[in-house]
Task: structure prediction
Amino acid sequence: MRFDDSDFVIKKDSFNQEYILCAYQGNKSVVEIPSGVTSVGPFVFADEDHPNDIIAKIVFPNTVTQIDSQAFCHCRKLIEIQWPDNEDFKILKCFFDGCDFLAKLSLPKSMDSVPVIKLPPNIKKIKIHSDIKCATQNSFVTSFEDNGLAKNDLTVRIFLSNSNYKIIDGFMVNVKHKVALFHVDRAKKTVRVPDGILELGVSCFNEYDYFEFGERVNEWSKAPLVPVENVVIPKSVRTIHTGAFLYCKNLKSVIYKGKSCELETAENIFCECGNFSDLDAKVACVDTADKGVTASNMKLARFLYIHKRFKSGAWLNKNDLIKEMKERFVLKVLGVATVTRDLDLLRDRFNAPIKYDHTEKAYYYTDLNFSIES
Result:
């Protein structure tokens, strides 16, 4: 692929077949990134020593799947960002240091996870969509000066600005998808997840930011923060995502009111939880409470099924895989996040030749001779 616009410095990563935007050398107020660029590096438009006072809007093509967390830093007149319309586009982190004119920001629709977004102090409005399934109480911050950021209530206010998010029994809940995103209250040793919840989000009970730096007061509830010891999960819950109980070092019991076959648990849900280590993760279900066994899941079966489908020459998107595996394994619940983790594992750990075609909007194997055994 050739890029003829001299305003852009674009390099090809021959190993991953990616086209990386490394620098912008133009002087336009509206910057349109060339189609074909797949990722954007750090400090592409400006840096602390060379701030940009020209760029007001940046338009990304739909081919972009990754933007570095510091790509926008020091664009002092930036007021608008047009994100890629691409289901694979995600933001891992995003910092807007020095973007003093950025008064409003809308998150891309493909973004179902909000890890950390550092906003400029003068930001007036954040628009979030209704499909976010992963966030923590520190997803939106304006400063990293407060270790742990436990006093930060900005994230709570941003989520409550969208009617699809409500605080229910001390949890920030996506009511559309019935996902408990994070625990807001943090004032009781024994916590009951609200009835009707289907999923416990990634880092739902994450306590690292709250207790690793000493005692805290919850800025939202104005009450002292109390480490959780016992969690009761209703039988409506079908999925517990990775790191749901991250750094809950005082955790003593997690009781699920349903059967083990009805619950899917990700790996490392009890990461850094003392006795509830990720190597000995125990959820006491009604049929396994006396045995202390881990709730079962279909991870290996899904993994092998995806591999065999791609090896047969199939081109499939995530929704195709969800539909097929629900029928194949008689699953009531199977989400995009779970299939995404399966694809990542297949590609990253086993070096499977998975590629995504933006035209066909589907994944496929570039080498049908690939085998997991090799």
The helical segments are 154-160, 208-211, 299-311, 318-329, 336-348.
